[in-house]
Specification:
Radius of gyration: 18 Å
CATH architecture: 3-Layer(aba) Sandwich
Number of strands: 5
Distance between the termini: 43 Å
Structural class: alpha/beta
Oligomer: single chain
Largest sheet: 5 strands, parallel
Shape: globular
Length: about 190
């Protein structure tokens, strides 16, 4: 004799971890106006099987992120990691090879945790010369190709100059839907 037990199906939302710097932490604007919050709203509408965790910290570097990434992965067990780091390293003139090594370590940890990775690329102002800024920009494409991960070549693509805050570094609330649109194009195939 056996008993048949009918339990309601348990459904767990797959976690999307956003791991970045001030561009993802909604620096200078209300957090709910930032592209990460807008992403959560879009997923609630169109893909309710996903939830977003924003582990971004203003001022974070790729090297600094490496210090806390393993614990963040263990805590949230994401299925997808959106990695948005490197800009602060570049603005500080960190050697591109060092930034690339730090990002590669983060990608490796995410893949070891069986998470799909979307890498968000950045561009720099020409403060350190054309060679540095070109190598920095190409670094993201190299990493995406080497590790076979999804890439958004430039997070701030299409953001107009008047859509930046007074510091000319951080996008305003008005720019956030455009940023979400850019991220969404890269993220959608991973969902």
């Amino acid at each position: 004799m056996f008993a048949l037990c009918l339990l309601p199906a348990i459904s767990h939302a797959e976690t999307i971890l956003v791991f970045g710097d001030s561009l993802s932490a909604a620096y200078g604007i209300p957090r709910e106006a930032g592209w990460v919050s807008l992403l959560q709203q879009e997923l609630q509408r169109s893909r309710p099987g996903y939830r977003v965790v924003n582990a971004s910290i203003s001022g974070e570097t790729a090297a600094g992120g490496d210090q806390r990434f393993a614990a963040t992965l263990r805590r949230h067990q994401p299925g997808i990691v959106i990695l948005e780091l490197g800009a602060n390293d570049g603005l500080r003139g960190t050697p591109v090879e060092d930034i690339e090594a730090s990002l590669a370590a983060l990608i490796g940890q995410a893949r070891k945790a069986r998470a799909r990775v979307l890498l968000l690329g950045m561009q720099l102002p020409p403060n350190y010369g054309g060679d540095y800024t070109a190598r920095f920009m190409m670094m993201y494409a190299k990493l995406a190709q080497r590790y076979h991960i999804a890439l958004v070549p430039f997070l701030l693509e299409g953001v107009a100059p008047e859509q930046f805050q007074a510091d000319n570094l951080h996008p305003s609330a008005q720019a956030q839907p455009r940023i979400l649109s850019t991220v969404w194009r890269g993220l959608k195939p991973l969902l």
